[in-house]
Amino acid sequence: MGEKKGTFKKWKEKVNEKVTTLSNKTSFAVDRSKLRKQIGVIEEEIKVLKQEIGEIVNLNRNSLFSVSMVNYQLMQIEAKEKAVALLEQEIEELNDRSKAAGVEEELIGESIDIIEVTQTFICANCNEFYDESKNFCEECGYKMI
Questions:
Q1: Contact 66, 11 (CB under 8 A)
Q2: CA-CA distance, 107 to 114, in Å (whole number)?
Q3: What is the 3-state secondary structure (H, E, C) of 57-115?
Q4: What are 79-100's pLDDT values in tens digits?
Q5: Which label site among 22, 30, 61, 68 has the fewest CB atoms less than 10 Å from its CB?
Q6: Could you list the residue ranges forming a coiled coil in this record (predicted)?
Q7: Do the Cβ atoms of 49 and 77 come closer than 8 Å?
Q8: How many Å apart are CA 78 and CA 119, to the nearest integer?
């Protein structure tokens, strides 16, 4: 009888170990997926800003107003590109932490598509993130709209 308890205990430990590993893999994969979704949203916003620049330049070719509008759009693009770089850095750090924990990015990967994509708003002045549109940055007071 004692031998059966020992076997069950070993089996239980193995199951717990596998569950913990799977939980870690899932957690790291979800975190990576969230960051990549944020990057995708920001890159789409950059694309829209670049299209708006083209429209501004085309409509106001000889106007000083056009230059200031383009400069404003360029500042927003720069802020968003910095945000993308920071998110990519977070992904690298997450990958390093997952490797240190013995969890490789593979099994679950990016096949988890249950994460809702939300639009991110970023202050062009101080790079503060917001989930919703703001007229003014709550951090530095910069006019965002």
A1: no
A2: 16
A3: HHHCCCCHHHHHHHHHHHHHHHHHHHHHHHHHHHHHHHHHHHHHCCCCCCCCCCCCCCC
A4: 999 999 999 998 888 888 888 7
A5: 61
A6: 77-104
A7: yes
A8: 17
